[in-house]
Design goal:
Structural class: mainly alpha
Number of strands: 0
Oligomer: single chain
Number of helices: 11
Helix content: 55-70%
Strand content: under 5%
Order of helices and strands: HHHHHHHHHHH
Distance between the termini: 47 Å
CATH superfamily: Heme oxygenase-like
Mean pLDDT: 93
CATH class: Mainly Alpha
Length: about 260
């Protein structure tokens, strides 16, 4: 059964003509300018040096759930694609995160970050300290990709259009602002400065070429709204639990838990 996608954009009438590829791209970029999670107050705190070390730890621990889901999401997407050449290209995303050969991959690089923040690696990988809202948001993304057609699933990845900017902000902001962060733990973000543009260029070109009808374009637009909401919801949960009003849900990480001896 295909999951019904909540409508985020204004419905167009049957009389409306499809957008041109340039107009569709402009619409997608406008969504990022309004909805991407670099605008969230928690991220502004994080990049501006306003977070405590415990808040940074909470962010890194919960964000691991998202990093860990990406290869599963991409494997689900590959299962929807009948074109062998597209599958071969998309496979690189799984290798980027799970690793291949001497490259341990993005998940390993994220664990280097949580190592540097003092976490026990087994605790991070167990995800037992993650908030329920984090887990729900992440799993909704995997399920969305599994339940929707290939074009729609690919469109949900278009937040990558806006990712290089946020990675650059993280590198400069966190290195300048926190004495407990050094360059050795920022490898994940540095790698994504080159991976994300490559990935988004391909996905955007695919969407421009294949989203030709009003219905397809509406699905593309709504998929990007959905993905922006997935990212925003994770930060809402972090802010509510670890900033204000500080209501950590039962079972979620609290300072002192899961740290190396």
């Amino acid at each position: 059964m295909t999951m019904m996608m909540p409508r985020m954009s204004e419905p167009r009438t049957d009389a409306d003509a499809p957008l041109s590829p340039d107009a569709l791209e402009a619409t997608l970029r406008a969504i990022g300018a309004e909805r991407y999670h670099n605008l969230h107050p928690f991220h502004q705190m994080l990049h501006g040096g306003e977070c405590t070390i415990e808040q940074v730890r909470a962010w890194a621990l919960n964000r691991f759930c998202y990093q860990d889901c990406i290869p599963r999401k991409d494997a689900a997407l590959i299962a929807k694609i009948e074109d062998r050449d597209i599958r071969r290209i998309w496979l690189q995303r799984i290798l980027d995160h799970d690793g291949y050969g001497d490259d341990r991959g993005g998940i390993e690089r994220w664990l280097v970050l949580t190592d540097g923040l003092g976490f026990d690696r087994a605790y991070v990988q167990s995800m037992q300290g993650a908030m329920p809202a984090t887990r729900f948001a992440v799993e909704s993304y995997v399920r969305f990709v599994w339940d929707n057609p290939g074009l729609t699933a690919i469109s949900s990845c278009l937040t990558e259009l806006f990712a290089p900017k946020i990675h650059a902000e993280r590198i400069s902001g966190m290195l300048e602002s926190y004495d407990f962060i050094d360059d050795s733990v920022m490898g994940y973000f540095r790698k994504r400065l080159t991976q994300a543009p490559r990935d988004c260029d391909f996905a955007l070109a695919y969407v421009r070429d294949h989203a030709r009808t009003v219905e397809q374009q509406d699905a593309v637009i709504n998929a990007l709204y959905f993905k922006c909401n997935v990212l925003w919801a994770q930060l809402d949960a972090l802010y509510f639990a670890y900033v204000s009003p500080g209501m950590v849900p039962p079972g979620a990480w609290r300072p002192g838990q899961g740290m190396r001896a």
